[in-house]
Fold:
Amino acid sequence: MSSSFGGSPMSIEGIIEAAAWLVMTIALFLLVPKEKIRDAMVVFFFKQVLTWFFGILVVQWNLIAYPVRLFANAIKTSFTFEFYIYPGLCVLFNLYYPEQGSFIRKAIHYFVFTTGITIFEAFLQKYTKLIEYIHWGWPWTWITLFLTFLASRYFYRWFRGDFTSKAVPVAEDPRPRR
Structure:
């Protein structure tokens, strides 16, 4: 029972998918500073690569099914969540990461994002037809989300030049200030 647009427009699945697109779009417009748009795009596309690969694998290995999904005739994974919502949340995770925070503050940041998404997915799995766990469970979701957040964090730090031997600000404007 798959649909080409997340169920009928008035189904709970259709409402959730439409709301997810709307809320994430508004969040990205409001919460991504203009000077960080390039960074946001890099993180977004990197997370899409990860979710594309792992999302297809878990469906092909019959671990998860998405009975109701956008583009049901094109792909068996959830386009909305794998290609837009998770990457969008990853952008916010990275842009608002507590760089100067303590280890505890950084661990809480990981915990809040990973656990929040896991709880939301578990809710969707239990009460909707948007996701069905076959040979999967919420601990696997939590672990894979944590690992992809960690990977995106290291990739983003590499992109910014944080691993270079000299501490040179990457985004500094060379033009004199007036």
